[in-house]
Specification:
Order of helices and strands: HEEHH
Helix content: 25-40%
Low-confidence stretches: none
Number of helices: 3
Strand content: 5-15%
Largest sheet: 2 strands, antiparallel
């Protein structure tokens, strides 16, 4: 301040931008939910459990299941 010394530039500690860290490669995000294995027999929606699929089919496709 009054001692004649210059203040150092405080931006030198920030470092490079994020783009240069991964060299332009996109980072892959790990999937937290399991990949759906079951599909509705009528509309091809995906489900992770047989219970979910059968509940969906009973609720939304009752007309189609009556003939079976």
């Amino acid at each position: 301040m009054g001692n004649g010394r210059e203040q150092p530039d405080r931006t030198d500690w920030i470092g490079p931008p994020d783009d240069s860290i991964n060299n332009g490669k996109k980072r892959q995000v790990k999937r937290t939910k399991p990949k759906p294995l079951l599909k509705c027999h009528y509309c091809m929606l995906s489900y992770n459990s047989e219970k979910e699929r059968s509940e969906h089919e009973a609720l939304w496709h009752t007309e189609k299941t009556k003939g079976l």
